[in-house]
Amino acid sequence: MAMEIERKFLIVGDAWKVGVVETLVLRDGLLARFGEGKVRVRHGGDRAWITVKGPRDGISRAEFEYEIPLAEAEEIFSLCDMPHVEKVRHIVPYEGLTWAIDVHQGALSGIEFAEVELDYPEQPIPMPPWAGEEVTHDPRYRKATLLSRNAELLRGRTA
């Protein structure tokens, strides 16, 4: 089974910027939720994917990702819940691991995370100086929670 083993951290400062080796502009759309899992479509550059993620088990979860034609992805976005998640992902290698620094735009503008994918759950992580508090298990930092909270704030401004 394909597994995603990932830890998420808040970011301290901007020292990570000097290590960026690649930058991607990504857009995610939530297509469906099932139990504690989800199905999303993602567009980045000239590629697109459908991803199925199962429920979390600690820092692990089943993840299946399938590349799809870009034109089909654009059509699928029209079926997704709004708002879509927009972010700039910066790839930063640090002591043998590849970190993804996500700088959100649009509905989640101003939110930044550092994520690192691991080979196994107990894998030691050399901590970069710009990785702050770990929020892997904190539901306040899940995208669904952040989007919901943001929608409430926006509704409050227009009321």
Automatic annotation (TrEMBL):
- Pfam families, alphabetically? CYTH
Q: Where is the CYTH domain?
A: 2-148
Q: Which residues cross the membrane?
A: none
Taking the record's annotation, the residue ranges forming a coiled coil are none
The record's annotation in PANTHER family points to: SLR0698 PROTEIN
Kindly provide the name given to this protein in its UniProt entry. Answer: CYTH domain-containing protein
Q: What is the lineage of its organism?
A: Bacteria, Pseudomonadati, Pseudomonadota, Alphaproteobacteria, Acetobacterales
